[in-house]
Amino acid sequence: MRKLILALAATVAFAGSAFAEPVRISVGSYNLNNLPFPVAAGLGLYEKEGLEVTVENFASGGSKTLQALVAGSTDIAVGFYDHTIQMQSQNKAVVGFVQLARNSGLVLAGGKNAAFDPAKPETIKGAKIGITAPGSSSDFFVRYYLQRHSLSADDVSLIGVGSGSAAVAALEQGKVDLLVNYDPAATFIEAKGVGKILIDARSDEGAKEIYGGIYPTAVLYATQAYIDENPETIQKVTNATVKALAWMNTHSAEEIVEKLPKEFISGDRDTYVKAVQNAKPIFSVDGKFSETDTQTPLAVLKSFNEKVAAASIDLSKTYTNAFVDKVTDKTTN
Question: Which domains does the chain carry?
Answer without folding.
Answer: 2-103+215-326 (3.40.190.10), 107-200 (3.40.190.10)
